[in-house]
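Notes from hallway chat w/ T.B., transcribed later so I don't forget. T.B. wanted the structure written out for a chain they're using in a teaching module, and asked if we could keep both sequence and structure tokens in one place. Agreed to drop them here.
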Amino acid sequence: MEKRKCLECGDAFDGRKDKKFCCDQCRTAFANKQNTDQNKFMRNINNILRKNRRILAELNPTGKATVTKTDLLDEGFKFSYFTNEYKTKTGKVYRFCYEHGYLQLENNLFALVFRKEYVE
């Protein structure tokens, strides 16, 4: 077996021909460095989605509620971030942050809903 240098720390090591790292710690550190930007982006998006979900849950403790757009914006809700959409046969579009959703009504009102099927 020939000696190779670890891609992370540069130490020489013996091992299989396809081995690139001297230990699991170096392999993990290398992978973390490679994915940092992507992980940061995904982490930020997930934080926004979780915050939107939390806002919807707090404003809708009974499973159905009506709130104003201002109520949502005052809490920091970001309308551009949601996990999925549900379109009814009549053409209404519900947007969901996980199991908590909303439907835009007239006069800047929003109907808040909770879908049990997502959690059962």
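Follow-up for T.B.: Strands lie at 4-5, 12-13, 64-68, 84-87, 93-97, 100-104, 109-114. Might be a good example for the class.
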